[in-house]
Backbone:
């Protein structure tokens, strides 16, 4: 639980820091999960225009896809709500017994 | 998320203020809600209060059909135990399991040895100084276990002036009655007395130190998750 909070701190601090440095920034948040999902609702990932990111919204399986979408959001300023199904195979690789699903909300920091 | 909102959120978190970020899923508009500081009656704030108490972020659908993501930012739960006595051993371990950061204050070194309390912060100080070092907040539970007035009372006098969510004091009804008399002579009254759970713990017939710790953890959990029920009990 404490780890969770430390990680959140870092993500939001990073968002503010990047923004203050004049970078385009987007924030991705897990808003819903179904079945076994590696990261709980509220988990966040912050992305800057160059593609650097801090935080996590899964055990590593969807971060790449989320970063791509987040860069779109930085470019067009639009929010996005995206469903990610985690395939059984991928889920197994991150240590889950069954597949999960999560919904990620991506918004610009402006 | 607007930069101003982000900055305020970071300030709130640094100040250990309980805050909920409400984001409209259609428009992306966000706002900060403080359900712990706002009276009930507003649909969105009431929903935020429920997720805050459950410590569970999620999407809610409002009466007008709009969907809002409520993101709870609760400071960590903490517990301060006054007195490194036998009951403190199972209580501190149970509190750690329940997700609390635990500290024990006791000026008697032979009691407060790290060997007896693995994973727990030991504050080797007089209890009132210990409370100052700990800096209690509204996500703090405090339990006094020494039932020695010269150790328990200084801590109690300090925490009664803070906004901790739970205060529990070990000791019989008779001991508790005397405690309240001493606190009355310090200028405290009914409002403060109603905040104190004494004798500490739920009435489940607990006998052993571990059972007493269970009854205390149960009472603390109720105070955390159902604060209104606790308030109405105190008002009876």
Residues:
């Amino acid at each position: 639980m404490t780890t969770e909070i430390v990680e959140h701190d870092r993500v939001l601090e990073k968002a503010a820091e990047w923004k203050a440095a004049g970078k385009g920034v987007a924030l991705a948040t897990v808003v819903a999960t179904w079945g076994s999902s590696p990261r709980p609702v509220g988990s966040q990932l912050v992305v800057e225009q160059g593609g650097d990111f801090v935080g996590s919204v899964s055990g590593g399986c969807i971060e790449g896809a989320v970063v791509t979408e987040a860069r779109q959001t930085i470019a067009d300023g639009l929010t996005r709500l995206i469903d990610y199904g985690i395939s059984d195979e991928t889920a197994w690789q991150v240590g889950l017994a069954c597949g999960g699903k999560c919904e990620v909300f991506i918004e610009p920091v402006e | 998320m607007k930069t101003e909102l982000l900055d305020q959120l970071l300030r709130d978190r640094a100040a250990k203020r309980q805050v909920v970020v409400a984001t409209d899923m259609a428009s992306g508009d966000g706002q900060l809600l403080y359900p712990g500081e706002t009276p009930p009656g507003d649909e969105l704030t009431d929903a935020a209060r429920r997720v805050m108490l459950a410590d569970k972020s999620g999407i809610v659908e409002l009466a007008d059909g709009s969907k809002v993501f409520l993101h709870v930012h609760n400071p960590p739960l903490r517990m301060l135990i006054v007195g490194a006595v036998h009951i403190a051993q199972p209580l501190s371990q149970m509190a750690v399991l329940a997700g609390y950061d635990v500290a024990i204050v006791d000026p008697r070194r032979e009691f407060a040895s790290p060997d007896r309390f693995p994973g727990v912060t030991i504050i080797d100080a007089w209890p009132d100084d210990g409370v100052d070092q700990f800096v209690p907040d509204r996500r703090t539970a405090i339990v006094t276990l020494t039932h020695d007035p010269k150790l328990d009372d200084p801590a109690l006098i300090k925490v009664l002036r803070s906004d901790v969510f739970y205060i529990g004091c070990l000791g019989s009804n008779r001991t508790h009655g005397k405690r309240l008399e001493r606190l009355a002579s310090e200028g405290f009254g009914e409002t403060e007395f109603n905040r104190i759970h004494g004798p500490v713990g739920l009435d489940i017939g607990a006998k052993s130190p571990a059972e007493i710790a269970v009854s205390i953890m149960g009472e603390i959990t109720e105070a955390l998750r159902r604060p209104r029920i606790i308030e109405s009990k105190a008002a009876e």
